């Protein structure tokens, strides 16, 4: 049995008869009610163990935290709804997204960020896993480990696998989003990453041609945007031929034409163009942090938590991935990490000043989680509902981010920037110095946010 009262959740949702469907992600119980008017959201928020409630167009999302899996099992048993696989990418399903878009202004931007999230979120565990391995390797190298040791050298190779072959991961996730055959998408990716292109580049050849039409020869390993756009294009090519080709040859001709046309058009046009766009985005962010570091850090550190609340922080994932793949580091993670720790500091202030036992318990656990890189409980369960602490957390993030920008601090691996994942900041010639300064920036963000909350926030119970 879970610590959260599932019976109370069901009652607040309008009872068993008002529940049509339910699933869950990493932290949320996602329920589709028959009649949303029958849902008592205020009652949901008051249930012990419920960190917050998000009202979607068709879903009611109850934020539980890591315990959500056990809550979901009990919920299914109690209500009798069909058990469904968890949503690993922490997103609504496609139907919910489309219906949400009908009810929101700025649907184009909403669609864009939702699509980016659907493509990149499934590969985040692989990026984070290899990023953590890279962080450990950087720590080991700082203490004298060398690639002259075969075991260590092979560990380095393993940790870099996701960055070298990230196009294959993106091909798989993009094909799922755009409803095309996954293996055909992977084959197109393989064609774009064929060793022949790298051999041509090594031989000094920069252009080739198909049907007399020239194209730039590019090594697409470690690239991000080209394969995404290639699969999007191929999905429409596949759907077109799937409609017009009938009979037993369909199973052969549809994938053949999709692979040939999708790959060829990509090599001609969107491959080189999107490769250039990806490079320019990464270079632009690098330029901003290099030439206007304190401004970039101040602004990004200040708005990042708001981006997380709106879900638009997913749009930075391809940029960060491109920067790590191209340069081996990024300037952004120390700043976004400051924003995360700033929210932790605000939650500490809530814990320190509040007299409400439930709020103090939630604030304490959320603060600890945020210090380890998990910010959803602190945002939805504590700071956003309390109002001012959220903005004080943003100010703390802005101050810590500005200092990180001034010092041009770097991250050398992907992952959730936090006190726990300090290894991702170890790299370059001054590994310990860079890492230590990042931790100081995090501490500054924490202290500023905590102090502002303690001084200027008044608990509602007072």
Spans where pLDDT lies below 50 across 5 or more residues? 88-106
| SSE arrangement, N to C | HEEHEEHHHHHHHHHEEHHHHHHHHH
Task: State the domain count.
Answer: 3
- Helical stretch tally: 20
Helix fraction, binned, reads 55-70%
Q: How many extended strands?
A: 6
Biggest sheet architecture: 4 strands, antiparallel
What value does the Rg take, in angstroms?
24 Å
Overview of the structural elements:
- The chain has 462 residues and is α+β, with helices and mostly antiparallel strands.
- It has 3 domains: 6-104, 2-Layer Sandwich (Gyrase A, domain 2); 165-282, no CATH class; 292-456.
- It contains 20 helices and 6 strands.
- The strands form 2 sheets. A 4-stranded antiparallel β-sheet has the order 1-2-4-3. It has a two-stranded antiparallel sheet with strand order 5-6.
- A hairpin with a 3-residue loop joins strand 1 (19-24) and strand 2 (28-33).
- The longest helix is centred in the middle third of the chain and has 42 residues, at 250-291.
- Residues 88-106 have low confidence and may be disordered.
